[in-house]
Write a structure and sequence with these properties.
By secondary structure, the protein is an all-beta fold. It has one domain. The protein has no helices and eight strands. The strands form three sheets. The chain has a three-stranded antiparallel sheet, with no helix packed on it.
């Protein structure tokens, strides 16, 4: 098995065997809304083997917008959010294996 996930019972028997890709969360940070661009370096992240996304928590009514971002290698640049909106953004990264 070159990749996947196996789960064993107490006696060592395989109870789950998947040869599908698995992933693990490697980074999560709260990022403030800003009218300036912000860069974040994710240690050990490889954009060819992982995914980055931003989720937004919104406590108000109406629409909310997550800021735009770009990924280059292990650096994520969150572009300016104009005008800044109330709420909290989280930058997340997972790696696949």
């Amino acid at each position: 098995m070159s990749y996947g996930l196996q789960v064993f019972d107490g006696g060592g028997g395989v109870i789950f065997d998947s040869n599908s890709f698995t992933c693990r969360m490697v980074y999560r940070i709260e990022i403030p809304y800003s009218t300036n661009s912000q860069s974040f370096v994710i240690p050990g992240f490889d954009s060819a083997k992982g995914v980055v996304w931003i989720d937004t928590a919104w406590a108000g009514s109406g629409l909310t917008f997550a800021p735009r971002y770009s990924v280059s290698g292990n650096t994520v640049t969150v572009l300016a959010n104009t005008p800044p909106a109330p709420g909290v953004n989280y930058l997340n990264a997972v790696m696949f294996s």
